[in-house]
Amino acid sequence: MSLTVAAIRLDNDKMDAIHGGLAECRTLSECLAVDFSILARTLDGLEERDFRDISSWSKLGITRRMRAMAELLRNRLGDDMAASLASHPSDTVRGWAAYMIGGRAGVSLPEILDAVRPLADDSHFGVREWAWLAIRPRLAQDLDEALAQLAPWTEAASEYIRRFACEATRPRGVWSSHLPQLKNAPWLGTPILDPLRADKSTYVQDSVANWLNDAAKSQPAWVGDLCRTWQAASPSPATARICQRALRSIKRA
To answer: Distance between CA atoms of 225 and 74, rounded to whole angstroms?
Structure first.
């Protein structure tokens, strides 16, 4: 057997385990390749019509599929099922749980954040992304409260939690709608940014830099001034790295 054939077989075996709800995805490509209609068959309480509906979403973008799946699960299994799915072996199913939490109606933002926090601190990279993407529309509904609620997260021991507070509030974000308030007035985000200006984690540093790079596309002067202030007040390698990356769009202009 050639190495190529062996690798394909191993990949197929891996995807079988992923679709069986027994294994986590290792890469973004695997995350995007998950067939929801197959994985959903590992859950109790769904019917054949549900699987047909899920199959019909195959051409939708990934975040739209995640939201649609969460809505279907909420309608069929109830909101309380999110807590059970949040500990599922599949990272994709845990992502569905995040979207179920983020889409809850009639629930306060502090309650939503409390429920999603374990997923924001998940060991799997994909679940951590789904967690902030899932609640971002809710954050946008009341940005002032969101910033106030997330500011204490910047002091958490977990780098994942600290990064979540920053990533969830990026002015432009990735795979998500923009936050016009922060595009126009990024200084509103300083309660999140200032505590992270010298964070020792490169995971957090990259998020802060990307936040500021987003802001620099609409408020470059403010970002430049902030970086100069930070570097004067905190002349550390971490701050220097953040500012270098934050200013990359300005330097190219």
So the answer is: 46
